[in-house]
């Protein structure tokens, strides 16, 4: 946060990831060492890196909010998976597969997770955990003729992470 004008109910911040969702939170408990007294007062999708948001109620002496503290919490959208599609079945060998996803605005790296299963089982075993990826695709030779699943998430330069994408199921016949 680079500027707070409490009597006008304005908060300005800089270098926000465009496309991310920000949550403006407020607390009256000063100090709040446990960080449990924050509540959300506004939400906005960032449309430019330097943005001002108007809070729903001006912070005036009448509302008792003149001693409030504010923070901005960022939330990235989960990357949109492009391919392979959910439920894809492959009859190929070698089992070279490219997992692709759309770029997330403000993201600098991605993490991809791939797991494999055994036919008829509901349990999954970890196989690939690729962290720090700087591209929006990952090529791998799948471990065997069996089901698998994959998901991806994003992170920015400060370590804020997105939600994880849903698992996408894939299957290999040979």
Give me a quick take on this structure:
The protein has 174 residues and is an all-beta fold. Helices cover 0% and strands 47% of the residues. It has strands spanning 3-5, 10-13, 21-27, 39-45, 51-54, 69-75, 81-83, 88-90, 96-101, 109-117, 124-133, 137-141, 147-155, 168-172.
Explain what the structure shows.
It is built from no helices and 14 strands. The termini are far apart. Helices cover 0% and strands 47% of the residues. Mean pLDDT is 78; it is low at 60-66. A hairpin with a 6-residue loop joins strand 10 and strand 11 (124-133). With 174 residues, the protein is mainly beta. Strands 8-14-13-10-11 form a five-stranded mixed β-sheet, with no helix packed on it. The chain has a three-stranded antiparallel β-sheet with strand order 1-2-5, with no helix packed on it. The chain has strands at residues 3-5, 10-13, 21-27, 39-45, 51-54, 69-75, 81-83, 88-90, 96-101, 109-117, 124-133, 137-141, 147-155, 168-172. The relative contact order is 0.20.
Give the class from helix and strand content and strand pairing: mainly beta
Q: What is the overall number of helices?
A: 0
Largest sheet descriptor: 5 strands, mixed
- The averaged pLDDT comes out at 78
**Cα radius of gyration in angstroms:** 22 Å
**In angstroms, what separates the terminal alpha carbons?**
54 Å
Number of strands: 14
Overall morphology: elongated
Order of helices and strands: EEEEEEEEEEEEEE
Task: Report strand order across the widest sheet.
Answer: 8-14-13-10-11
Report helical residue fraction: under 10%
Unreliable stretches: 60-66
Estimated share of beta-strand residues: over 45%
């Amino acid at each position: 946060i680079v500027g707070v004008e409490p009597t006008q109910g304005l908060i300005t911040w800089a270098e926000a990831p465009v496309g991310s969702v920000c949550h403006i939170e407020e607390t009256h408990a000063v100090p709040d060492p446990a960080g449990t007294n924050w509540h959300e007062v506004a939400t906005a999708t960032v449309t430019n890196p330097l943005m001002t948001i108007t809070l729903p109620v001006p912070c005036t002496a009448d509302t008792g909010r003149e001693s409030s503290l504010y923070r901005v919490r960022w939330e990235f959208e989960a990357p949109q998976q492009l391919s392979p599609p959910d439920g894809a079945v492959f009859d190929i060998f070698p089992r070279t597969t490219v997992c692709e996803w759309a770029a997330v605005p403000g993201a600098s790296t991605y993490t991809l997770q791939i797991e494999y299963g055994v036919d008829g089982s509901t349990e999954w075993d970890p196989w690939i955990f690729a962290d720090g990826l700087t591209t929006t695709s990952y090529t791998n030779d799948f471990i065997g003729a069996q089901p698998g699943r994959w998901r991806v998430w994003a992170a920015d330069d400060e370590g804020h992470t997105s939600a994880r994408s849903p698992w996408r199921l894939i299957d290999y016949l040979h």
